What does this fold into?
Amino acid sequence: MNIILLGPPGAGKGTQASRLESERGMVQLSTGDMLRAAVKAGTPVGLQAKAVMEAGELVSDAIVSGIIGESLDALGDETQGGRGAIFDGYPRTAAQAESLDTLLTERGRTLDHVIELVVDEDALVARITGRFTCANCGAGYHDSFKQPAVAGVCDVCGSTEFKRRPDDNEETVRTRMAEYRAKTAPILPIYEARGLVQRVDGMADIAEVTAAIEAILDGQS
Ligand code: AP5
Ligand code: MG
Ligand code: ZN
It folds into this structure.
C-alpha cells in the first residue's frame, strides 16, 4: 500500500507518518527530512536547496522527484516484500504529482489513498513556531503542547540537546502556507477525480488522527 499525506505546514504529516511507520511497517518518505539531511551533509542538492528552504519556497520539481525515485528504489519491489510508502510533503505541485505516477508505475506500485489533513491555518502557526526536536534521536516536542517529562531531557534517548528548524519562524511559515495554497492545494482535484481522496480532521488529538487514518487504510471509512 502506498499513500500520500497532504496538508499545509504543521498539519501533522510528519507526526502521523512516523506513527504509521512504527505501527504498520510502512516507510515514511519525507522530502523535507531528506532535503534537511542533504543541507546538513552539504551535498550538491543540499547546497541548492538551503536558501530556498530558509525562504519557505519550493525546491525544484526535478530535485525532489529525483530523491523520491532513489528512495523508492531503496525500498525494493513491493511484490517481493518491499514495504509500502507514506509520502509526507510530496507531491507538492502538479508536476510532482505527475512524476509520482510515473515513478510508481515504473516500479509496479499503485497509489492507494490520498489523505488530506484538514486544519485551521491560524492554529498551525502556533504549532510550528513552538516545535522543537531532540538533536540526537529526532523525537518531536512542543513548547506548549508536549514538553519532555523532565525539562531539558529527551524522553526517548535522554539527550539534553534539542534543535529548531531554521524555517520555523512566523514570517517563513506564512510563506510556506502561501506556497501550499498556491501550488499544492490545487493538486487535490487531480486525485479527487480518481476517487482517492479522504479527509481527516487534523485538529483532533494526535492519537485520534492516527485512528482515523488507520480506519481509512483498513477500509473501514
Ligand atoms: P517540510 O519539511 O515538508 O515542511 P512542511 O510541509 O512545511 O510541513 P511541516 O514539516 O512543518 O509540518 P508537518 O505537517 O509535518 O507537521 P508536524 O507533524 O511536524 O518541507 C520543508 C521545506 O522543504 C519546504 O518549505 C520546501 O522548501 C522544501 N520541500 C519539502 N518537500 C518539497 C517538495 N515536495 N517540493 C518542493 N520543496 C519541498 O506537526 C507540527 C507540530 O504540531 C509538531 O510540534 C507536532 O507535535 C504538533 N502536532 C501535530 N499534530 C498535532 C495534533 N493533532 N494536535 C496538536 N499538535 C499536533
Ligand atoms: Mg514535516
Ligand atoms: Zn532523543
Summary: The beta strands are 3-6, 27-30, 85-88, 113-118, 131-134, 140-142, 162-163, 197-201. The mean pLDDT is 95. DSSP finds nine helices and eight strands in the chain.
